[in-house]
């Protein structure tokens, strides 16, 4: 009996040292109304104990921040004395994680796709392999590279054959904790491959989809730290670089960090990271065909296009804006959850962030049309939407993706 108790205690200890707890962490929604409020909040974003879920940059736009228990009192005093508008979004973040954990365990999947839960990396890989077996005429799955922990980065190609067709490249999950992004890629795959009524969407356009670009980080969010963002490459003091600051186009010119412990650490040099290298090499090898690049992130409901390194506009800004606006409108029209996108260049709408995959893809990779889509978040229910909202999000986003397809087919297919 005593021995049994000891084993249980050791196991509990093992689990608790390996899983980060967010017990007592509170999430706040803040609305800075002056430049000085914005500046003070920005300075906090570099301090340990503050996790900004969106980076403070614009006046009167709400910012969500998660605050560690030992900083709560001084933070709330600071907000009150400075008359900053805020409310508590989530009382105790660990409770959100516990609800999520129950949902994760609810159903074991082998080879099917699900939009009733968030799937693990292994489950996603198994689904892709199953499709390749079941639909060999239109599906091929390849690895575009391996990660630090030797996980393969899978890419699924959906094509009815023939050469010189325009292609749409989609990735998701560059940032590990943005769990709602991979399901959008998976729903696209499912609708294109398994829904026969969508056959016309693959007749004149090829699809190249990477549902999880950061397998190590993504797996780490399931097993260790629910809010991990970067990859898992080892540094001298901290793990991980922000893959979406690591692309070598105006690298480190703004909105990125040179300190490896920070969330936006850009890596030791441009393309130091395996995941960024893998995507770069794939795009360069296929740049003649790729006509549209979509990269899915969360959250914020932003439809963004280059540039992210400067507030200057690209020459073809009107085309990028018109197309992005039409897509955002289609999504909003289909939305059952009140989604509303803000459209514009990354720098002007959101914040300066050099080294992003969208900038490099357009600036160097030869893909004229390049978009970063910040999907809806979970609001008071967490960083990600609760599982019952996965289906509404992927369905409404799919309406926008179909519009992108129609544009590419019309412009490039003959
Ligand atoms: C922000 O909102 C406040 C009112 O809450 C308003 O007085 C101010 O003009 C707004 N500033 C900007 C830049 O929109
Ligand atoms: C990495 O994975 C590949 C298969 O993807 C395997 O052949 C290789 O042995 C692995 N290397 C290590 C060091 O585990
Ligand atoms: C298949 O696609 C059609 C429209 O393209 C849609 O109406 C239908 O709901 C889809 N079926 C499934 C099972 O997703
Ligand atoms: Zn992101």
Structure notes:
The protein is of the alpha/beta class and 414 residues long. It folds into two domains: 83 residues, Metallocarboxypeptidase-like (Alpha-Beta Plaits), CATH 3.30.70.340; 306 residues, Aminopeptidase, CATH 3.40.630. Helices cover 38% and strands 17% of the residues. The chain contains 13 helices and twelve strands. It has an eight-stranded mixed sheet with strand order 5-6-8-7-9-12-10-11, sandwiched between helices. It has a four-stranded antiparallel sheet with strand order 2-3-1-4, covered by helices on one side. α6 crosses α13 and α10 runs antiparallel to α13. The longest helix is centred in the last third of the chain and has 23 residues. The chain is globular, with a radius of gyration of 21 Å. It starts with a helix and ends with a helix.
């Amino acid at each position: 009996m005593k021995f049994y108790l000891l084993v249980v205690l050791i196991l509990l200890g093992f689990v608790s040292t390996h899983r980060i707890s967010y017990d007592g962490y509170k999430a706040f929604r803040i609305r800075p109304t002056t430049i000085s409020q914005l500046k003070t909040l920005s300075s906090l974003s570099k301090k340990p104990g503050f996790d900004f879920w969106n980076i403070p940059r614009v006046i009167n736009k709400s910012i969500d921040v998660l605050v560690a228990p030992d900083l709560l009192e001084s933070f709330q005093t600071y907000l009150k004395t400075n008359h900053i508008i805020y409310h508590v979004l989530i009382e105790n973040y660990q409770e959100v994680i516990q609800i999520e954990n129950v949902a994760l365990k609810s159903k074991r999947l082998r080879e099917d796709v699900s939009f009733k839960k968030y799937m693990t990396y292994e489950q996603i890989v198994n689904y892709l392999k199953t499709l390749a077996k079941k639909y060999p005429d239109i599906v091929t799955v390849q690895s575009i590279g391996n990660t630090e922990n030797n996980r393969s980065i899978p890419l699924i190609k959906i094509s009815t054959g023939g050469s010189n067709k325009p292609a749409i490249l989609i990735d998701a999950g560059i940032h590990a904790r943005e769990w709602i992004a991979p399901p959008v890629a998976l729903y696209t795959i499912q609708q294109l491959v398994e829904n026969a009524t969508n056959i016309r969407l693959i007749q004149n356009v090829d699809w190249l989809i990477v549902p999880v670009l950061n397998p190590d980080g993504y797996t780490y969010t399931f097993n260790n730290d629910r809010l991990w963002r970067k990859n898992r490459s080892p540094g001298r003091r901290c793990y991980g670089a922000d893959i979406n600051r690591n692309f070598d186009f105006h690298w480190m010119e703004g909105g990125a960090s040179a300190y490896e412990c920070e969330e936006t650490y850009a890596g030791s040099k441009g393309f130091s990271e395996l995941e960024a290298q893998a995507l770069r090499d794939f795009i360069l090898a296929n740049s003649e065909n790729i006509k549209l690049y979509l990269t899915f992130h969360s959250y914020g409901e932003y439809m963004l296009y280059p540039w992210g390194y400067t507030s200057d506009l690209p020459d073809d800004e009107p085309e990028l804006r018109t197309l992005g606006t039409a897509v955002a409108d289609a999504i909003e029209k289909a939305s059952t959850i009140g989604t509303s996108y803000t459209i514009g260049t990354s720098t002007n709408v959101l914040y300066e962030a050099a080294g992003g995959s969208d900038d490099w893809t357009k600036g160097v990779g030869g893909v004229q049309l390049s978009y970063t889509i910040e999907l809806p978040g979970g609001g008071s229910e967490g960083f990600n939407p609760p599982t019952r909202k996965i289906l509404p999000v992927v369905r409404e986003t799919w309406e926008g993706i179909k519009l992108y397809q129609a544009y590419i087919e019309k412009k490039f297919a003959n």
